[in-house]
TrEMBL record:
<dbReference type="Pfam" id="PF00022">
    <property type="entry name" value="Actin"/>
</dbReference>
<protein>
    <recommendedName>
        <fullName>Actin-like ATPase domain-containing protein</fullName>
    </recommendedName>
</protein>
<dbReference type="InterPro" id="IPR043129">
    <property type="entry name" value="ATPase_NBD"/>
</dbReference>
<comment type="similarity">
    <text>Belongs to the actin family.</text>
</comment>
<dbReference type="InterPro" id="IPR004000">
    <property type="entry name" value="Actin"/>
</dbReference>
Length: 338
């Protein structure tokens, strides 16, 4: 029912939530005492949030709903009130600034590219190169190559690989990759997936979905990720606050686990954005920094895809939760979902 962060089928979403509560979690619909924290995507409008709250109260019959926007939840997981959240999803990539615990909605952007586009672009590049047997040219194979960790866009900084192996990968020479017992030699085309975020002019055409026409990167997103990130930061706060945002980047979402993604982002930011800034003073950022979860969240270590969930857990257990957008059954019955 949800595609690209937008609800496409509300009855299906209501049916899914009813199945989740009443059949999967075995909640008694006649006496539902399960309080819900609703983590809303940035693409949801206030009307859509109200509709979701309405479904939870009327179709699922929950006693209360705590509504939190996802970027704010992610920063709660970091014990931060100010930062920039880059949510790398399967279909979209959202960039949102949060300043003093308030989401800056009017500057947030959502790019219509994500992990699926990375896989499709890589598959198109491998098909064009002609080095992969036709029976292996599937999205599953492309995803296995992309997530393997052996083909990072900037692998020279990866000490886990032997020095000669790092030099071989960096040179663009063909390297072996084993998939389901079959060895395939892959050349520079294995790096094509990163063009989705950093090279809007790259010559990569691919199918955006089943039976869909060919699209180019520029058709889906004509501006590179670093430039969009700079736009969000520059329009969200005054110049004297921008350094704080540049040093408080948080990568989350399933695709944030992509090996080498942050290093690629850091290099492009330093070379294409910060190095060419018109001003050079104490208010101009000289470096960027991505933050991770606190060490005591051991179960979430290395799992940026769970940032929103961790933030929701932290907020729900917070003594200040009732001071947020909290809707009780009594309030809903009196005033509705707004």
């Amino acid at each position: 029912p949800i595609q690209g962060g937008v609800v496409r089928d509300w009855p299906a979403l209501a049916a899914f939530w009813q199945y989740l509560f009443f059949h999967h979690f075995h909640v008694d619909p006649r006496r539902n005492d399960t309080h819900v924290t609703l983590l809303t995507p940035m693409r949801w409008t206030p009307h859509e949030v109200e509709r979701a709250v309405q479904i939870l109260f009327e179709a699922v019959r929950v006693p209360s709903v705590l509504v939190i926007e996802q970027p704010a939840a992610v920063l709660y997981a970091m014990n931060l009130g100010t930062g920039v959240v880059i949510d790398f999803g399967a279909e979209t990539t959202a960039i949102t600034a949060v300043v003093e615990n308030s989401v800056v909605r009017h500057t947030a952007v959502c790019l219509d590219v994500g992990g699926h586009d990375m896989d499709a672009c890589l598959l198109a590049a491998m098909r064009k190169a002609g080095t992969v047997p036709p029976h292996l040219l599937t999205l599953a194979f492309a995803r296995a190559v992309r997530t393997s960790g052996l083909f990072e866009p900037y692998p020279l900084e990866q000490p886990a690989l032997p020095a000669d192996r790092r030099r071989l990968i960096a040179s663009g020479a063909a390297v072996p990759f084993v998939y389901e017992g079959e060895t395939v030699m892959l050349g520079p085309e294995r790096f094509a997936f990163i063009d989705v975020y950093f090279a809007p002019d790259a010559e990569c055409q691919y199918e955006s979905g089943p039976d869909a026409p060919l699209v180019s990167i520029a058709q889906k997103r004509g501006v590179a990720l670093p430039e969009m990130l700079a736009h969000v930061i520059n329009t969200s706060v005054l110049p004297d606050r921008r350094v704080t945002l540049w040093e408080s980047l948080v990568l989350c979402g399933g695709v944030a686990q992509q090996p080498g993604l942050y290093r690629a982002l850091e290099r492009h930011l330093l070379a294409d954005v910060l190095a060419v800034a018109e001003t050079s003073n104490e208010q101009q950022a000289k470096e960027v920094r991505a933050l991770g979860f606190a060490e005591y969240f051991t179960a979430f270590k290395g799992r940026p895809d769970l940032g929103t969930i961790l933030g929701g857990i932290v907020i729900t257990k917070s003594p200040f939760a009732n001071m947020m957008t909290y809707v009780s059954r009594e309030r809903y019955d009196a005033f509705g979902p707004s």
